[in-house]
Amino acid sequence: MDVKGKAAVITGGASGIGRATAELLARKGASVVIADLVEERGAETVKAIEAAGGHAAFIKADVTDEDDSRRMLELAVKRFGGLDILYNNAGIAIGLPGYPLAEVKRWRRVLEIDLQAVILGCHLAAPLMDPKGGVIINTASMAGLYPYKEDPVYGAAKAGVVNFTYSLAPWAAKRNIRVNCVCPGVVDTPLVRRGLEAAKRAGHTAGIPAKILQPIQIAEAVLNLIENDNLFGRALEVRPTGSRLVETPEAPGTRRKS
Questions:
Q1: What pLDDT, in 10s, does the model give residues 58-97?
Q2: Distance (Å, rounded) from C-alpha 212 to C-alpha 16?
Q3: Rounded Cα–Cα distance for residues 33 and 13 (Å)
Q4: Which of 94, 89, 76, 114 is nearest to 16 (CA)?
Q5: pLDDT, tens digit (0-9, with 9 covering 90-100), for 144-188
Q6: In angstroms, rounded to a whole number, what is the distance separating the alpha carbons of residues 151 and 144?
Q7: Mean of pLDDT over the chain
Q8: Which pTM does this prediction carry?
């Protein structure tokens, strides 16, 4: 898909990976709806995009709320004439203390935002993208591909996003909607910086990586997934050393398509 002239919705778009992606898509000619809970940062992102000659709008939205999620998608249709791209990016981690010491409501919130909101976003976006189709990208994580002892609930949620993405591969043929996910390593975002600082204060330094990705690296990976019309139901792992498409597992007894 050529993003020029397309309308995109990005959740968690006010900072970090979401903001970097919003700014990149806008530079490429897309109109972007930024959905986030932090109004001040959202307004700053819109201002920055418009100052650079792009088109953007902000909406305060809780991605776990069906009405909020519906409004953010409908805003793209009303303001920019359609919904071509949805980037389900919003996410959180448990932080310290981790599972199982964390309160139940804290780890449930991780599941709600990191997994259930992705499922909800795809559910609500599909009818708005029909019949012309579109592209959906979900933010998973390397923690969804490998065991993640530092935050097993986060890892479980992200693993769910990866498998959910694999399982929506048939949408490419049935609905003309390509669904892929990006699986970054540790990225230099405000949320991650706060988490790393808390880990250092608590003496939990074993899981802190030597190299940290920058948000623009993930934004460029997302753009690649959007632009490549041959990719659907795939996971793109992004490390500081580069990116690779993860081999999609096949159920026993199935024959891999050539």
A1: 999 999 999 999 999 999 999 999 999 999 999 999 988 8
A2: 13
A3: 8
A4: 89
A5: 999 999 999 999 999 999 999 999 999 999 999 999 999 999 999
A6: 11
A7: 93
A8: 0.92
Burial (0-12, 13-18, 19+ Cβ within 10 Å), 180:
buried
Q: What is the total residue count of the chain?
A: 258
Q: Which two tokens stand for residue 122?
A: 């795809």
Within its chain, how far is the Cα of 217 from the centroid?
Answer: 13
190-201 and 16-27 are packed helices; what angle lies between their axes, rounded to 10 degrees? 160
Looking up tokens 């204060």 gives 201
Q: Tell me, what DSSP letter sits at residue 143?
A: G
Q: Do residues 184 and 142 lie in contact, with contact meaning Cβ atoms separated by under 8 Å?
A: yes
With b for 16 or more beta-carbon neighbours within 10 A and e for fewer, the 206-223 pattern comes to eeeeeeebebbbbbebbb
Radius of gyration of the chain from its Cα atoms, rounded to whole angstroms: 18
| DSSP type of residue 122 | H
Tokens at residue 54, please?
Answer: 């792009």
Among 78, 50, 45, 81, which residue's Cα sits nearest to residue 60? 45
C-alpha 244 chain-centroid distance? 17
Residue 232 phi, psi (nearest 5): -155, 140
Interatomic CA distance for residues 210 and 220, integer angstroms: 22
DSSP 116: I
CATH class assigned to 7-245: alpha beta
Q: How far apart are CA 254 and CA 126, in angstroms?
A: 27
CB of 123 within 8 A of CB of 71?
no
Catalytic center residues: 154
242-245: strand order across its sheet: 55-60, 31-36, 7-11, 85-88, 134-139, 177-184, 235-239, 242-245
